[in-house]
Structure formats: C-alpha cells, structure tokens
From TrEMBL:
Keywords for this protein: Membrane, Transmembrane, Transmembrane helix
Name this polypeptide is given: Integral membrane protein
Biological classification of the source: Bacteria, Pseudomonadati, Bacteroidota, Cytophagia, Cytophagales
Gene source species: Hymenobacter volaticus
Superkingdom field: Bacteria
Transmembrane regions listed in the UniProt entry: 6-27, 48-68, 88-107
Amino acid sequence: MNYLLLVYGIYLPVTVLLTVWVARTLFTNGRTFLVDIFHGNEPLADSVNKLLLTGFYLINIGYATLMLRSDYAVENYQQTVETLSIKLGTIILILGGMHFFNLYVFYKLRSRAKNEARDLAFVVNKQ
C-alpha cells in the first residue's frame, strides 16, 4: 500500500476545508470592522473584504500545496499519522497566524480611523 497517497488523500481535503472555514469566518465577522473603519461606506468595506478573502485563499492554499511534498518515505500507519500531524499542525498554526494577523490589521485600521475622526471633530469644534 502506498501510505503517502493516503497522507495526500486526507491532507488536501482537510486543509482545504479548514482554510475555507477560517476564511468564511473572517469574511463574515470582519465585515463589521471594515464598515466601521470606512465610516459606513459599505460598498468599499465589502470590496476590501472580498480582496482580503481572495488573498487569504491564495496564501493559504498556496502554502498548503507547497507543504504537500514529503522528503521521506511513509511506510506504515504510524508514519502516516505522524506525517499527517506535522502537515496539518503546520497548516493550523499558519491559519491561526493569519487569523491573528488579520485581527491586528483590523485593529490598527480601526484605531487610525477613530484617531482621524477625533482629529476632524477637534478641528471642526475649534472653528
């Protein structure tokens, strides 16, 4: 039996499903932040959200594809499980990192938008 094909057969669908799940979660919940960041401009927020979703898919699916390669033989079920755990664990860590990176970007953009709104209100009140 070719155990490496078993690894590929489990790894690819699980990776794609995890990536889609995380991406959809970010897409759905990130919209609220983007609408706030762009001061209620929903078309702009939706466009940026779709671009972020596309970039997320490209980066994660691309990385998952690069991780598909194995440099060593997988000759039994134990090595199959170990190889899968390394590959899937890496992908899960990357997805988590991307998730926190997106949250950080949203936070920074929102902070900047609030500062700009505060500065504008100060200028208007001063006049």
